[in-house]
Amino acid sequence: MATLASKETDGDMSDDDNNEFDA
Question: Are 7 and 21 in contact (CB under 8 A)?
Fold first, then answer.
């Protein structure tokens, strides 16, 4: 679940992983 954790920390960054949850 590296992507999920990344979303919490990244917040609103343009990361590939974050993009999935950035909706």
Answer: yes
